[in-house]
Write a structure and sequence with these properties.
Layout lengths: L1 E10 L2 E8 H5 L3 E5 L6 H13 L25 E8 L2 E8 L2 E4 L6 E4 L2 E8 L3 E6 L2 H12 L3 H7 L1 E3 H9 L2 H12 L2 H39 L1 H5 L12 H66 L1 H17 L3 H26 L10 H17 L1 H39 L1 H79 L1 H6 L29 H39 L12 H4 L8 H78 L5 H46 L4 H7 L3 H25 L2 H7 L6 H64 L11 H24 L4 E6 L11 E6 L4 E4 L5 H22 L7 E5 L7 H13 L6 E5 L3 H6 L3 E5 L6 E6 L2 E3 L1
Parallel strand pairs: 3-15, 3-16, 10-14, 14-15
Antiparallel strand pairs: 1-2, 1-4, 4-5, 5-8, 6-7, 8-9, 11-12, 12-13, 16-17, 17-18
Helix pairs in contact: 5-25, 6-24, 7-9, 7-23, 9-21, 9-22, 9-23, 10-21, 11-19, 12-19, 13-18, 14-16, 14-18, 24-25
Length: about 1000
């Protein structure tokens, strides 16, 4: 990598644009960068680092610090441009940090985002742009150089003060620097991963032991008294041997439970035998008590039967007499029915005779029949007269219908004449309306073609006005979002700076006694840092960062919304303008509206209203064309119909005259015969109806007289049969037989009582004959209560024994199940414990806490120790030249005190032949030793990065501590770096170097900002 040209604008102490020509400085191989303190020597190196990586080294990139020069004018942006050759490619990198700039509109400042540009120079096409992405440029430069920012700052920008501290530092401090340079995070990640795996495996083993102990507790609960004989193992989760102790204890508990099971089975068997005997005794006492009670009950029932015997005899006599009376019952019912029929027939006869004239009140059936036949003959003679009367009425109806038809036809003729008189004028009016409607339809089509474009322009104008307001609102929101993002960014940078100031207290808060410190690796923490006032923790900083990101996202969203609204506003403005062809040829401006560049919505709305009104009127007029045509066709049809109706009415009038004359002649002939047939009635029908009513009354009366005579004859016959039946049944009179009658239900009740007494008597006789009941009655009185008590006591013993046996069996089964679970858990835990032992051994070995790791060296320290050996070997080659062969740097892995070993660094003095600590070197010796160490470290890191050639190096300070001879030797070593076309820049303010090194870059401190000047052999340029 070779630097060619660096251009700084408003960067650090440089208020204007300054240019550094590295090609001119590198021509001599060794050049000096000098200037007064605070002039900006280190800022030149910061600019190189910022151009390459977008950040400056170390604490100068802390939050709250700004890269912009305070001397620069407001309109001059901060910018760094670097030309270099790396990997055979000529590149130009330009970067601008995030900075405030004056607003383009209005007062105040706004924050401009950071920007980056990358260009490449080709031999044919010159400079060609490659990218403007921060991420892409960073990845491209890092890949070409092969080093991170920290590595670059240590390898190319050799900070002597850092390496002097590195030379005297302890192992932990050296480990931090080497870890950043050689990126041994993967080895630290291996240590952390193994520690995490150990913790995870330990947790799983403890969880398994806790499950086993939980099962053991359940076994203790299930075992009951058996568990009290042997106490539960007192081992804690994670301790070896816990699983075997639990299994052994569970086996003892199961053995005790099985012994108690055998005892419970024996006790239950004896209780069951006693229960069987007590049950047999109880059954015998109960049977004796039953037989004795049965015998006493039978004797009480026999005495009760004797008391009820008179009632049984009386019921038997009543039933016998009732069954004799049942023989007379049919005759009694027949006599009663005949009497009821005679009374009904007599009432019907009296009612029928009351409807007849008084002369027939005492007439017999034959006389009434004779009168009925005479009236029927008269009724038959009136049939012909009734037909003639109905025909006369029909003639009257027909004549009335002819009169109505005549009046209707006359009205039809008058209406047809009046309507046809105005037909010609009406026809001309309807034809004129059809023509007007056709003209309106043509105009409506023309107006519709102009109305739709006008409406589209009106909608666009309204959208244009609405979007103009939205655009102003969006611009205000964007301004507010920008201000919020700027405030959030400043707040985050302020909090980050505060947190970095108190980061030691935050790291100390994570320390745990007995555990290694993540920074130094020590297990002792004698004086951890304490948070001061206003301490900011990580969560507060992250919340501020999240707030800044949200504010920045809100600003981006507001910017996007403003762009969208502006696009919509421009489209609406274009749509509101009149397009080509919108205004038809010959249109009147009063109707077609404004055609200017920016018509208002009010003007376009008036235009749309006028066009819509004209179109509505034309459309309404055109809509009547179809109705007018229909009306004309209907009128023509009506004219034809009225002419035809008038002709039909005239023909019907002529036919009605001849029909009316024939009806008059027929009605005159019928009326002569009807006068005689009506008699005194108003009509023949009324006279016939009177004769029909009289015939019906006579027929009813005749039938009623005959029915009354028949009923009287049946009553006499029923009395004779009743008297004969009572005599044969043994009764003196029919009244005596009727008094003895009993209903069927009463007879069944009597028979039921008689049968019940006889059944009871048979049952009592049978039970009195039982031998066992008679024998039981002779024995002493039974005592079932005493036998019941003895049986209940035996039964309680069986229940208690059964419950004890069931509980014991359940306890044994539960112990067996839990023991199987414990054994399963132990089997499952076996691989986990093996894995834990293996992982714990590896974790202890890599962490340096294992007994197998004799030097207590961590894995990362072991890798860094190998790198340190390489660095010491590379540094020794130059240190021997600088010290005239006296000193040699060697790596030491010896332990210092109680700390871990691995990163010790000693110097071997060839004059004394002793190896001593680097802290014993003098100031000048420390300088050239640290310089040799820095150059050696640069060589090793370069090889680690893939052998990228570093053609430009910078060495910062430390030369003031050397005497003249040592300074010459150091400069010789540095001058030897030019052997392979490499240039070295020395950053120093030592005056003797300005005389020894002709090629110089001077940084001058001025009132309005620093400036750079080039000094060559021939003079000064700036």
């Amino acid at each position: 990598m070779r630097l060619h040209r660096l251009v700084l604008t408003a960067f650090g102490p440089f208020g204007a644009t300054q240019e550094v020509d590295f090609d001119a400085l590198s021509a001599a191989g060794l050049f000096l960068l000098h200037g007064p303190t605070g002039a900006g020597k280190t800022s030149v190196l910061d600019a190189v680092c910022y151009a390459l990586y977008g950040a400056v080294p170390g604490a100068r990139q802390s939050p709250g610090t700004s890269l912009r020069s305070d001397h620069a004018p407001a309109g001059l942006p901060t910018e760094v441009r670097l030309e270099l050759t790396v990997g055979g490619r000529r590149l130009e990198i330009t970067r601008r940090p995030a900075q405030l700039r004056p607003k383009k509109k209005g007062d105040g400042f706004t924050t401009e985002k950071a920007q980056s540009w990358l260009r490449e120079h080709g031999p044919e096409d010159g400079w060609r742009a490659l990218s403007r992405s921060h991420q892409e440029i960073g990845e491209e430069i890092t890949q070409l150089i092969g080093m991170s920012r920290d590595q670059f700052c240590q390898v190319v920008l050799l900070p002597q003060g850092d390496f002097a501290r590195f030379l005297r530092a302890d192992a932990e401090a050296r480990g931090k620097l080497l870890g950043r340079l050689f990126d041994t995070r993967r080895f630290a990640a291996v240590e952390e991963r193994l520690t995490e795996l150990r913790r995870t495996a330990e947790t799983r083993v403890k969880e398994g032991d806790e499950r086993i102990l939980g099962i053991a507790q359940r076994i203790a609960q299930a075992a009951g008294p058996a568990a009290e004989e042997v106490p539960l193992p007192d081992a804690r989760p994670g301790e070896p041997g816990l699983a075997d102790a639990v299994l052994e204890w569970a086996a003892v508990a199961r053995s005790g439970a099985r012994e108690r099971l055998a005892i419970a089975e024996t006790v239950l068997s004896a209780a069951e035998s006693r229960q069987v005997f007590a049950r047999q005794e109880l059954d015998a006492e109960r049977e004796l008590a039953r037989l004795q009670q049965r015998y006493e009950e039978t004797r009480r029932r026999a005495a009760d039967l004797e008391l009820r015997r008179p009632d049984r005899d009386r019921h038997h006599e009543l039933l016998r007499r009732a069954r004799k009376a049942d023989l007379v019952a049919p005759a009694l019912e027949l006599r009663d029915e005949a009497e009821r029929a005679h009374r009904a027939a007599a009432a019907t006869r009296e009612h029928a005779l009351a409807q007849l004239p008084g002369t027939l009140a005492d007439a017999g059936a034959e006389q009434l029949a004779t009168v009925e036949r005479r009236l029927r003959q008269e009724l038959g003679a009136l049939s012909a007269a009734q037909r003639a009367e109905r025909r006369s009425a029909e003639i009257d109806t027909e004549r009335a219908g002819l009169e109505r038809q005549a009046r209707a036809d006359e009205e039809t003729i008058r209406e047809a004449d009046a309507w046809l008189a105005g037909w010609d004028a009406a026809r001309r009016g309807m034809q004129e309306r059809i023509e007007e409607a056709q003209e309106s339809a043509t105009r409506a089509e023309q107006l519709a073609g102009r109305l739709e474009p006008a409406r589209r322009r009106l909608d666009a104008a309204r959208r244009r006005d609405t979007l103009a307001v939205e655009e102003a609102d969006a611009a205000d929101r964007l301004t507010a979002a920008r201000e919020r993002a700027l405030g959030a960014h400043e707040g985050w940078l302020h909090l980050r700076e505060q947190r970095l100031r108190g980061i030691a207290a935050e790291l100390a808060a994570e320390l745990v006694d007995g555990e290694a410190c993540k920074v130094c690796g020590s297990d002792d923490h004698p004086e951890p840092a304490r948070p001061g006032d206003g301490h900011v923790d990580r969560a507060t900083e992250e919340r501020a960062l999240d707030a800044y990101r949200r504010a920045e996202q809100g600003r981006t969203e507001a910017d996007r919304e403003l762009g969208i609204v502006r696009e919509k506003h421009a489209a609406a403005r274009a749509a509101a303008l009149p397009a080509d062809g919108d205004v038809p040829r010959g249109a009147v401006s009063g109707v077609d509206g404004p055609t200017g560049a920016e018509p208002t919505a009010v003007e376009l709305e008036a235009l749309v209203d006028r066009l819509a009104a004209e179109h509505a009127r034309a459309h309404r007029a055109a809509a009547g064309m179809h109705a007018a045509r229909e009306a004309l066709a209907a009128a023509e049809r009506e004219q034809s119909g009225r002419l035809e109706a008038r002709q039909r009415a005239e023909r019907r009038a002529a036919a009605r005259t001849s029909l009316r004359e024939g009806l008059d002649r027929e009605q005159t002939a019928l009326e002569t015969d009807l006068v005689t047939a009506r008699g005194e009635s108003g009509s023949v029908a009324e006279h016939a109806a009177l004769l029909e009513r009289r015939v019906a009354l006579l027929a009813d009366a005749t039938e009623a007289v005959r029915a009354e005579e028949a009923a009287a004859q049946r009553g006499k016959e029923a009395d004779d049969r009743l008297a004969d039946a009572a005599f044969r049944a043994g009764f003196d009179t029919p009244q005596a037989a009727a008094a003895t009658l009993v209903s069927d239900a009463e007879q069944r009740e009597l028979q039921h009582r008689i049968d019940g007494w006889q059944t009871e008597a048979a049952a009592v006789a049978e039970r009195l004959a039982e031998a066992d009941s008679h024998a039981a009655a002779t024995r002493p009185q039974a005592d079932p209560a005493t036998a019941q008590s003895a049986y209940e006591a035996a039964e309680r013993q069986v229940r208690d024994g059964s419950a004890t046996l069931a509980a014991t069996r359940e306890r044994c089964a539960e112990l067996g199940r839990l023991s199987h679970r414990a054994a399963d858990e132990v089997r499952r835990l076996g691989p986990l414990r093996e894995e834990y032992d293996r992982v714990a051994g590896l974790a202890g070995l890599t962490a340096g806490t294992s007994a197998d790791n004799e030097r207590k060296m961590r894995l990362e320290s072991y890798v860094l120790a190998a790198r340190l050996e390489q660095v010491a070997a590379a540094a020794t080659a130059r240190l021997q030249r600088m010290s005239s062969g006296r000193y040699t740097l060697v790596h030491s892995d010896a332990r210092a005190g109680g700390r871990r070993s691995g990163l010790g660094l000693h110097v071997v003095d060839s004059w004394t032949g002793r190896e001593r600590d680097t802290a014993t070197l003098s100031g000048g010796e420390t300088f050239f030793a640290s310089l040799a160490l820095a150059l050696g470290l640069a060589d090793v890191v370069t090889d680690e990065a893939g052998g990228v050639r570093l053609d430009t190096l910078f060495i910062d300070e430390g030369f003031g501590s050397l005497d003249d001879q040592t300074l010459d030797e150091v400069l010789d070593v540095l001058d030897s770096l030019r052997e392979r076309d490499r240039s070295v820049g020395i950053v120093s303010h030592v005056g003797d170097l300005r005389r020894r090194i002709p090629a110089q870059l001077e940084v001058v401190k001025e009132r309005h900002g620093s400036a750079v000047r080039h000094h060559a052999t021939g003079g000064i340029s700036g």
